[in-house]
């Protein structure tokens, strides 16, 4: 029986502090890009309303995405290898309370930029959803063998983009993104402990 070799990261393993600082710095950078685009790009932020119905839509969408992600992880070896590589790099050094930041920082900053600013700037249509989702997917590239994870992130970006367009509310993808990050990372960490 041939033993499967563990994929070594193309970037060195990070400490807990380095991961948290990287998440914070990335969130700030995405926020700055979004704010500059809003200021100088002649574009308005996608509408954001606090409607209970849209909050529940976001929760439902987050649960469905988490379930689909778990199924793909279970049945697709290339995706599992790619996702585990990425998650090992990001999640392994983090403590369970840190997962709050893993949900909030990317969930807010990435949705602000990709769905809140880029989507309306590109026309808030099918092409805008595809282009913003491709950019979102590439943001999740952490190594040359990470394409299955990037493809999945792109698909999720498409789902988030259409959830914003169909609901007319940025709250839906924000809630779905935060919840997906929380649940997926928590379940991954729990599997590692068992």
Can I get a quick summary?
This protein is mainly alpha-helical. It has helices at residues 16-40, 52-75, 77-91, 99-121, 126-139, 147-167, 171-193. It starts with 15 loop residues before the first helix and ends with a helix.
Polypeptide structure, described:
The chain is mainly alpha-helical and 194 residues long. The radius of gyration is 17 Å and the shape is globular. Helices cover 75% and strands 0% of the residues. Mean pLDDT is 90; it is low at 1-5. The protein has seven helices and no strands.
Strand residue percentage: under 5%
**What does the average pLDDT come to?**
90
What's the overall geometry? globular
What kind of sheet is the major sheet? none
Give the termini distance in whole angstroms.
25 Å
Helical/strand content category: mainly alpha
* Helix count from the secondary structure assignment: 7
Could you estimate the helical fraction of the residues in percent? over 70%
SSE sequence, one letter per element: HHHHHHH
Q: Please report the total strand number as a whole number.
A: 0
Radius of gyration: 17 Å
């Amino acid at each position: 029986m041939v033993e499967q070799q563990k994929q070594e990261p193309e970037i060195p393993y990070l400490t807990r502090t380095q991961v948290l600082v990287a998440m914070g710095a990335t969130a700030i950078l995405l926020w700055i890009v979004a704010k500059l685009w809003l200021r100088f790009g002649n574009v308005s932020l996608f509408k954001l309303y606090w409607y209970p119905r849209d909050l529940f839509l976001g929760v439902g969408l987050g649960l469905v995405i988490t379930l689909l992600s778990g199924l793909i992880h279970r049945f697709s070896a290339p995706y599992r290898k790619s996702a585990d590589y990425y998650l090992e790099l990001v999640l392994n050094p983090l403590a369970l309370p840190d997962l709050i930041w893993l949900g909030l920082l990317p969930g807010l900053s990435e949705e602000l930029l990709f769905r809140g600013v880029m989507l309306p700037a590109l026309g808030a249509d099918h092409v805008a959803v595809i282009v913003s989702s491709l950019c979102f997917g590439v943001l999740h590239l952490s190594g040359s063998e990470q394409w299955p994870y990037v493809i999945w992130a792109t698909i999720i970006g498409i789902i988030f983009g259409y959830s914003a367009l169909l609901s007319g509310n940025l709250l839906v993808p924000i809630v779905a993104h935060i919840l997906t990050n929380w649940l997926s990372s928590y379940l991954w960490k729990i599997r590692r402990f068992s």
